[in-house]
């Protein structure tokens, strides 16, 4: 075994040498340059590269200098002499030494790379269907004597799938053409092209894309559907037709218009026609069954006839769909249904956004030999609710539809429900909220959550399903402020509505009604008992409610002081001596009558005394035609009697009067010349309330004689 010994100094020195250039690759850009690249592409330290080229046919050498700062590549711009073979070797050098790569050989035709061709037209050929002709110019730097291999790539505009075709052309002509066949009629295509020099391993880049359209054909097919309106116009029912190209047929033509004719089922003589370019024309039909026929046409011909039966307005449609549900796959919405009629094998599917505003145009598609329907999710808008209806179709009859709602993607509602409170009570309140508008729901509302919180209190919540739009809160605190709001939730989350405040009552209407009822009921019972008592004992009730007020004219005479007064006062003599003509007091036949006649107003009397001459006062009292006296409740009163006095002398009659009061009154009321002196009657006592309240004045008859006459008679 042989071995090589290396000193440590040599190992340390070799560790700092540059890396050996490897993976050398060279490209011959025809008539431009010859470029070589190698690895490593980057170096930590500065390295100088020298590329040595040897031309085998010319036996010449030259070099190309580069550094690690410019990258691991170097180009030769001169002495490009195809055909030839180049010998390439790369040297890497730094401060510690030089490292050389392996020697490589390069045939210029095998590494030649040219520019892409330039397409200048993609057009159909007159009279040839399903074909376009592609024309382009040769690359400017392509070798004139070489052969070029081409790859033409194409696709329909609405497709992402590319198809390719390969062919060969010589570089004799500056312009070249290729007929691309097997295409669909009236379809727009995108075309691009690349080429490579024969035997070369480097293709050119792709040319710029160019578009072209194939010639059209006569219409292939037509799908026909309808929307039945419930309202009538001038007694006719409007029917909107929906027209579009038949499912599965390519768009091979440009439709110029539609021919429509329709008639009642039992009378073809009433056929009417219409020519329109509108894909949603509207017809006005009668109440009977109608048949509608439609064809589309263009400059090359017309489509097969499409037929649709419109049932009579009173015709009952059959129903066979029992259930339907939707599910979401990775990128599709799938609708599946169950049918009770196995003979029905054709269906019409409608879908339209469910919005608050006017509905958008209806989308529709026919399905056959299956009981499911799929649609790409990107064909539907996220956060939009779609109404999907499936109609069974048996021959020419259309059955009753089955409808369902679906979202391809749900989100949080854009805003929460608006809330209000009603029926605020002492411990209860009704919370009401409005549904969120359809365009703001962004998904199915699964439930509502009612949050309420007392001022500086704990927060409570109640959750109800989406069909409930009001809730009664109970067990609240009397006379307390509350904050309430409602949250609407979908499968993606929820959002709170605006907050509102309310305050419970301190007393309820029921309590007010109860108290009022009790008080009113008690009063009613009292009235009833009182009426019953009055009916049973009317006199006693009358006495309690309306007590008898004594009539002074009918009252009995007060009790006199002195037992001999009655003996001294002879009523019959008083009656004989006093008469109406002499102005003497009217005779009384009983003491009661006399007392009633002698009632006078002491207050009024004092007022008269204080303002008039005393002599005139007594003259008015005793000699006037009208004299009155009313008892004062706080003052004593005196009774002056003009009557025939017995010889026994004057008597003073006082009742309940202080001893010093009567003389003072006598001094104030009667002047010395005209007073009675001790010979008058005086009475003082407690005022009679009945006399005070019932009688203010009493008129009594006095003698027309002067006090002097009375004194003389006495």
Automatic annotation (TrEMBL):
Q: Which family does it belong to?
A: Belongs to the type I cytokine receptor family. Type 2 subfamily.
Protein name, per record: Interleukin-31 receptor subunit alpha
Subunit structure comment from the entry: Heterodimer with OSMR. Interacts with JAK1 and STAT3.
Species, as recorded? Capra hircus
Task: Tell me the organism's taxonomic lineage.
Answer: Eukaryota, Metazoa, Chordata, Craniata, Vertebrata
Q: Which GO terms describe its cellular component?
A: external side of plasma membrane; presynaptic membrane
Q: Name one GO biological process term.
A: acute inflammatory response to antigenic stimulus
Q: What does this protein do?
A: Associates with OSMR to form the interleukin-31 receptor which activates STAT3 and to a lower extent STAT1 and STAT5. May function in skin immunity. Mediates IL31-induced itch, probably in a manner dependent on cation channels TRPA1 and TRPV1. Positively regulates numbers and cycling status of immature subsets of myeloid progenitor cells in bone marrow in vivo and enhances myeloid progenitor cell survival in vitro.
PROSITE patterns in UniProt? FN3
């Amino acid at each position: 075994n042989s071995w090589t010994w290396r000193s440590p100094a040599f190992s340390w020195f070799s560790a700092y040498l540059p890396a050996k250039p490897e993976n050398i690759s060279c490209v011959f850009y025809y008539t431009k340059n010859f470029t070589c690249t190698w690895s490593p592409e980057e170096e930590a330290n500065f390295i100088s590269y020298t590329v040595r080229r040897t031309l085998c046919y010319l036996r010449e050498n030259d070099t190309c200098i580069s550094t690690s700062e410019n990258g691991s590549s170097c180009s030769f711009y001169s002495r490009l002499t195809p055909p030839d073979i180049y010998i390439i070797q790369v040297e890497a050098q730094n401060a510690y030494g030089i490292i050389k790569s392996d020697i490589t050989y390069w045939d210029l035709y095998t590494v030649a790379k040219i520019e892409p061709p330039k397409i200048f037209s993609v057009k159909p050929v007159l009279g040839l269907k399903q074909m376009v002709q592609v024309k382009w110019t040769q690359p400017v730097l392509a070798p004139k004597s070489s052969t070029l291999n081409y790859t033409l790539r194409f696709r329909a505009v609405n497709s992402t799938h590319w198809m390719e075709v390969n062919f060969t052309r010589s570089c004799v002509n500056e312009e070249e053409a290729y007929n691309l066949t097997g295409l669909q009629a009236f379809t727009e295509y995108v075309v691009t092209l690349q080429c490579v020099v024969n035997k070369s391993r480097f293709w050119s880049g792709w040319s710029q894309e160019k578009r072209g359209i194939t010639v059209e054909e006569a219409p292939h097919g037509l799908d026909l559907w309808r929307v039945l309106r419930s309202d009538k116009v001038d007694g006719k029912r409007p029917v909107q037709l929906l027209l579009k190209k038949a499912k599965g047929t390519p768009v091979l033509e440009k439709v110029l218009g539609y021919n429509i004719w329709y008639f009642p089922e039992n009378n073809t003589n009433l056929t009417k026609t219409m020519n329109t370019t509108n894909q949603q024309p509207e017809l006005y039909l009668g109440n009977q069954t109608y048949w509608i026929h439609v064809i589309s046409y263009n400059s090359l011909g017309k489509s097969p006839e499409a037929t649709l039966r419109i049932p009579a307005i009173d015709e009952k449609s059959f129903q066979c769909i029992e259930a339907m549900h939707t599910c979401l796959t990775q990128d599709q919405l799938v609708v599946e249904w169950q049918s009770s009629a196995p003979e029905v094998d054709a269906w019409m599917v409608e879908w339209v956004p469910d919005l608050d505003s006017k509905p958008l145009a209806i989308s529709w598609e026919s399905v056959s030999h299956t009981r499911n329907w799929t649609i790409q999710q990107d064909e539907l808008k996220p956060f939009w609710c779609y109404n999907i209806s499936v109609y069974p179709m048996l021959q020419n009859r259309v059955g009753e539809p089955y409808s369902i709602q679906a979202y391809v993607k749900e989100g949080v509602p854009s805003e929460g429900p608006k809330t209000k409170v009603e029926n605020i009570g002492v411990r209860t309140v009704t919370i009401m909220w409005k549904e969120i508008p359809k365009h703001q729901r962004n998904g199915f509302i699964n439930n509502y959550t009612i949050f309420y919180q007392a001022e500086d209190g704990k927060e409570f919540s109640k959750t109800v399903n989406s069909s409930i739009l009001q809730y009664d809160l109970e067990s609240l605190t009397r006379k307390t402020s509350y904050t309430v709001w409602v949250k609407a939730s979908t499968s993606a989350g929820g959002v709170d509505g605006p907050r509102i405040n309310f305050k419970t009552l301190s007393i309820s209407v029921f309590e007010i009604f109860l108290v009022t009822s009790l008080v009113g009921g008690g009063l009613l019972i009292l009235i009833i008992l009182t009426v019953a008592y009055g009916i049973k004992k009317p006199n006693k009730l009358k006495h309690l409610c309306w007590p008898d007020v004594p009539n002074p004219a009918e009252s009995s005479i007060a009790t006199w002081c002195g037992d001999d007064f009655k003996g001294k006062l002879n009523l019959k003599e008083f009656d004989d001596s006093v008469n109406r003509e002499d102005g003497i007091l009217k005779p009384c036949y009983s003491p009661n009558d006399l007392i009633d006649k002698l009632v006078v107003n002491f207050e009024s009397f004092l007022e008269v005394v204080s303002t008039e001459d005393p002599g005139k006062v007594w003259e008015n009292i005793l000699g006037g035609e009208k004299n009155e006296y009313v008892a004062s409740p706080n003052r004593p009163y005196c009774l002056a009697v003009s009557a025939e006095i017995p010889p026994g002398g004057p008597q003073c009659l006082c009742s309940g009067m202080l001893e010093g009061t009567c003389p003072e009154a006598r001094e104030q009321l009667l002047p010395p010349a005209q007073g009675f002196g001790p010979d008058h009657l005086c009475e003082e006592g407690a005022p009679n309330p009945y006399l005070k309240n019932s009688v203010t004045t009493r008129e009594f008859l006095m003698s027309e004689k002067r006090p002097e006459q009375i004194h003389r008679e006495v």
